[in-house]
## 1
Amino acid sequence: MKQAIYGLIFYIFLMLPPVISISESIMVLHMHMQMPLLVIVGMLFTPYLKEKFPGFFEKWNTNGVPGTLLFYIILIYWMMVPRAMDDAISTLSVEIFKFISLPFLAGVPLRDSWKKLSKRGQSTALISFAIVYGIVSLLYIASPNQLCNNYIVAEQKALGWTSLFTAIGILIYYVQSLFIEEELEE
């Protein structure tokens, strides 16, 4: 319950107009700060939602695969469709969809799914995250054209490089996880 309250406070904070304005003013902040923070908000809500709707999570996400796939669909939409970021800035309905989809269709399923996945499933997910970030980095670094109308090409290149560093960071985490056994309690 405490996590849900913190999540709600954080969610309201992220919805404040000045916070939205700042976090969407720079492309890297938009994709690598605001969007992951919205996913984290959903992760904070997960224990509360699982307590309120226990049958729902057990019925549709028994082994963690459906939730992980839903997370990937949302992740790929927001990261690999440059138009989505543009529309989130200029169209209110898309902005609302972002503030609903990232916490509730990405964050909640990811947290619910992670412990349900086998070690092999978690490894596959981490490698897939790295691949997605690698593809995004190539998309934004290699494109000579401006992909987002609201951001200049230099910001696009910066996003590409930060995506590449994120992919490398995920791979480093994955490799180190092969050598360390962790017992985490939820």
## 2
Amino acid sequence: MPTISPPFVALTFPAMPVAVASAHWRTGTWARSAGFVRIVPVLAGMLLSGPAAYATGENGTPSTYFASDPTPPVKLGGAGHFVILTESGITDVPMSAVTGNIGVSPITGAADHLSCAEVTGKIYSVDDAGPHPCSIRAPKKLTTAVNDMHTAYKDAAGRSATTTNLGGGNIGGLTLAPGVYSWDTDVDIPTDVTIKGGSHAVWIFQISKNLVVSNGKSVILRGHAQPQNIFWQVAGKVALGTTSNVKGIILSKTLIAMKTDASIEGRLFAQTAVTLQKNTVTAP
């Protein structure tokens, strides 16, 4: 086998027989072939363990980092067909703009106060009392979705944390790498927070109390971070301040309240109610 000198190291993979140490460094990309080792740059003193994750930096230069146990996403099951799913209803101060399917269950469809004109998608109810004339009666579909919502909540809450009580619950101004973050406090976002990573990276935020995003503040994505890979598991209430902008899937055990002109690219899953006030909600 040829000698490989620092700052490069060869990584092998399970169930991939190593024929020779071979890789090509192409402009702007890392290339590899099945059955070969991977050649990657490594910083001096870095301990390598586990698979490598790849992301392109903002200047277009490929960067490499290593994770000992990459976080898998939370599986949403049937809940993933919805952008808003709630067990005790949706209140609304019109006009809101919702892109994606919505559903309420087990409460009657009469508790869904969004109008047909505010939803680009389908509106599902357990009975015939949903918004007229667009509501679709689908109790079995909704029961499955709500059960899967609970399963997703438990999954997110049960992950092993990689970071605990960051910032004492104040994460404003921080840039967050992929991982599982846990707090036994409220989590406040009084200034913009940045989530940065690759397109397959996952963030899970376990919050034992409330999540509060201040008026006009944003969750900003950098690198190739994707909103569908960001999960906010909140045991308490969620309050998204006026004109705030949030990214990710909110799994709340209680209320999700969006204040006037707040927006989210993600999903709102509440085990109680969702309240809207001239909001924009867009499925990722």
## 3
Amino acid sequence: MRCSPSLLLLCALLASCDQLGIESTSSVAARKDADGKAIGGACRHAGRALEDCYSLNKRAEKAAVYAGWREMNEYMRDNQLVSVLPVLTTGGVASMPAREETVAEASLKPRPRAR
């Protein structure tokens, strides 16, 4: 069985379609999953509820958003991190909210002695 050079060239071009800018379905699915996890993690870090995150990011896959939100929630709970309040609003930069004292800072303050 003989292979013609044009058939070999066609096989080589089809095998390298990623280099041509054509994404495979598996790479698209992996990218969407990673984007959804990043969105979910960012929503949790900003202190947003999961439902708010879904409504703000309608095009993201809900399962990936939930997975990212859950992973960030576990990470923040394990490392005792507090949510970061968003500074930007839809109209631009909002005024900086008053900084609340974290649990770690409150535990470091000296307590007044009882007399």
